[in-house]
Amino acid sequence: MRRTISRCRHAARRAGRAGFTAALSIAALTALPAVAHAQPAPAAGKAAVNVKAAVNVKAAGHELVFVRDGNVMLLRGAVEKRLTTGGGAARPRWSPDGKRIAYLLKNRIWVMNADGSGRRDLGAHASGGADWSPDGKWLAFAAPGCTGGPVVYRVATSGKTTPEVLFPAECKGQPLPAEKPEPARGGTLSERIAVDDTVSWAPDGKRIAFRGGMCESIYDACLTIGTVADAGERAVATFGGGGQKSGSATVPSWRPDGARLTWTASTSAKLTVIEYDPATGAKRTLGVPGDRELSYRTARTAYLTGERDGRSWIFQLDTSGSTRTALRQGSQPEPRP
């Protein structure tokens, strides 16, 4: 009974803030601090905790995509290649086999080959970054739906099916609402990140992490792990209800072994990256205040977006300690599998 009453109490609030969420979510992905292409020398005295200078990543065998000036970039060794032009791109994600890249382009889900060729619109609009199923056949994404908040859908990467609802269960069978005009950008970085609807599909294929869910009937903001088979949901971070402080948890990312999940938390003026153990519920902070949108390469190595000289930079992070290596100006890094 308490849950039913609570859901009714929060329904109007969810619907009321849906417009605000839609207006900011894509801006969270594309309207990040401006960055330049030149690579300036590290400023003396401004290094964060154990931060190394920019390095040639070829020796470590790193290959990743990231975003700069609204375009998807490929970094292979020390060589950069722009894969998209014209701006408006965000949240690139490698396919499990490393042959394709999914990304957002002005609210729509696109797929291209690893070299930037063969770009294809999958015919679905989203309010955050999509993620691949482990078999590469599906992309999960979030968009406004029947609850007034983010609903998680999946669409075939072949582009031959219409999107279908995965979460919440009460929206099953409902179609993806018609696309609305792209809203104007606005809000601070923390405000935009707080409504980022990027999702993350677990390596076992059984779970998806996403912002919102049924927990929004109780809390102002929350992050959920959903079970694909039965649409079950478990809130793993909650804010603004039941004595919890206000804040948000967004941009989830699974570790390759599925044993850890990270998200970008906003509970103060600075963003932070939280790592969560789904088995025990234990949490810890990774990186330094201001870091965001982490993506794992291995259990020990990850990439994230941080701040350097007032700009967004990509850092390599040793998750067993606090070593952060500055690599390139940009944001939203995603290492190749």
Task: Summarize the entry for a quick read.
It holds the Pfam family PD40. With 337 residues, the chain is mainly β. It contains 3 helices and 25 strands.
Question: Percent helix among the residues?
Answer: 10-25%
- Order of strands across the widest beta sheet? 1-24-23-22-21
* Total domains: 1
- Report how far apart the termini are: 46 Å
Organism: Catenuloplanes indicus
InterPro entries: 6-blade_b-propeller_TolB-like (IPR011042), WD40 (IPR011659)
Keywords: Signal
Pfam family, one: PD40
Describe the SSE topology.
Elements: H1 2-25, H2 27-30, E1 51-52, E2 63-68, E3 71-76, E4 79-82, E5 89-94, E6 100-105, E7 108-113, E8 120-125, E9 131-132, E10 138-144, E11 150-156, E12 164-167, H3 189-194, E13 200-201, E14 207-211, E15 221-227, E16 232-239, E17 248-254, E18 261-266, E19 271-276, E20 283-286, E21 292-296, E22 301-308, E23 311-318, E24 324-329, E25 331-335
Parallel strand pairs: 1-24
Antiparallel strand pairs: 2-3, 2-25, 3-4, 5-6, 6-7, 7-8, 9-10, 10-11, 11-12, 13-14, 14-15, 15-16, 17-18, 18-19, 19-20, 21-22, 22-23, 23-24
3D structure, described in words:
By secondary structure, the chain is mostly beta strands. It has a single domain (2-335), classed as Neuraminidase. The chain has 3 helices and 25 strands. The strands form 6 sheets. The protein has a 5-stranded mixed beta sheet, with no helix packed on it. Strands 4-3-2-25 form a 4-stranded antiparallel beta sheet, with no helix packed on it. It has a 4-stranded antiparallel beta sheet with strand order 5-6-7-8, with no helix packed on it. The longest helix has 24 residues, at 2-25. It is globular, with a radius of gyration of 19 Å. The model is unreliable at 1-28, 30-51 and 53-59 (pLDDT under 50).
